[in-house]
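Render this sequence as a predicted structure.
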Amino acid sequence: DDLHWYTTFIKFGIGRATYDSSQEIRNNHLTREEGMQLVKRFDGEFPDRYFSELMDYLEMKDEYFFELCDKFRSPHIWERINKEWKLKHTVNKDGSRD
């Protein structure tokens, strides 16, 4: 599950916190501000807990996984600044182009 949400974040720029928070906001269980805080804290969280086990299972080297991640980052969503990937726009207005 963690790897799925991480790769979703890489490909689309939104992760599990965005999906879950938006649902909770629509159901009036969270305020928009609370949802924004959750998104800032948890979206894009790296799945380090079982990462090495997942790579062993997939018979994949870590370096190749990260190469694949970078390959699937959409240039209209992401940009590389000082060797670090940044979202261009975020709900919190702290993206590289906000």
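Summary. The CA atoms of residues 77 and 90 lie 10 Å apart. The longest strand covers residues 78-81.
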